[in-house]
Amino acid sequence: MTTQVAGQKMYLAGRWVHRERTIVVRDPQDNSFIDTVPAASKEDMLACIEQAREGAKIAAAMPVYERMDVIHKAADYIENHKEKYALTIAREGSKTIREAAKETARCIQTLRISAEEARRIHGETIPFDQMEGNDNRVGYYQRFPIGIIGAITPFNDPLNLVAHKVGPAIASGNAIIVKPATVTPLSALLLAEAFAHGGLPPKVLSVITGHGNEIGDVLVTHPAVRMISFTGGVEAGEEIVRKAGLKKISMELGSNSPVIVLEDADLEAAVESTVSGAYWAAGQNCLSVQRIYVQQSVMRKFESAFVARTNQYRVGDKLSEDTDIGPLISEKEALRVEKLVHEAVEKGAELLTGGRRDGAFYYPTVLKNIPDESTVAKEEIFGPVVMLYEVTDVDEAIEKSNEVSYGLQAGIFTKNIDKAQKAIARMEVGGIMINDSSDYRIDAMPFGGVKKSGLGREGIKFAIQDMTEPKVVCYKLSN
Hints:
The protein is built from 15 helices and 24 strands. The chain is α/β, with parallel strands linked by helices. The chain folds into 2 domains: 10-253 and 455-472, Aldehyde Dehydrogenase, Chain A, domain 1; 257-442, 3-Layer(aba) Sandwich (Aldehyde Dehydrogenase, Chain A, domain 2).
């Protein structure tokens, strides 16, 4: 007797719906079956957008206290089921169970901050009498929701990055349609479940599962969708810009994050921070430490300690509390990283440790003396690979840090405030962490980059600014 798997439903404008066509969700660790989700059609997305038109009106009419209440109840629901959420993140993605638990905790915080920021969507009074002949005018501006937001989210933070789009959208009175990564849709559906239990009115939120080449263009190009919030690769981001038309666009794209370690740094702290920053989520992290520029006088000591700490990282079963690094999102991705490392070594790079693949697992890897023409020197690796470079001083380190076409975040380890300030002023990045790795982030801060690393900023308050428009009100008085 064959057991029929019912599979998950997608959340279309407040309704949980099945579809005959499905997508299989598998655990990248062993390719085992987890579940199925609907493979939405173009017609599904068009119907969803039509429902979202009404949802935008409903959301805009919700008083702030109701928006706050719904978001807090969604956060409560996740907190009460946090083990379920963490297990889902770990199983469908690359994170270990410890990393998944931290992502769940961050998602709860992201939603709670969103609820609080809903009460702080302020305008300002405008002194119209600053211009001669306008003595009898007074007024102000206030912010209004833009309408329908389309969100396209990646696999590497399948819950919290979705929350970073959904939380601000609902807080600011918008409708939102989420198209999650095809390989990790279950966490996004669980977020929709939390909002359904939180009492969010139908049609305000949709989570539509499907293949990007079938439904992505519909979401991106539809004139009723007034903003696209995208997190993903540069090529996909550039394609969205070309297709989107006249609408707001917010993008967090790739990176090749540098960290500078100067001779006066606390080397033990620098090693611990940069190792963690390099290998979190198997290096599949937009903030992942990729390049480390170390001053000559401390290079040998730093290199020895960094390699030793790297070799202590335990690669294995994601669901074990003892594991530090799980698999990449697929064997295909592990093969891609393996190819990049081999290319660098063939061109002259020195392999200090790692460089080994086992299925979808890729062992933490450290390279040195990397030729400038190597792909890993210029592009985002998105895997557990770090490159060490020797520099003479902070000026050379800054210059080399800026040579790539990305600029998301950076780090510098030094006790010299003048050198830190020089890095702050001259490094071409959206954020710089002093005495911390590039990987540091809290959910309330503005987050985004320059150059090919993206457009605009996430972080709840800053996302809300993008998701609202100022409207000027001016009264002409009779006297």
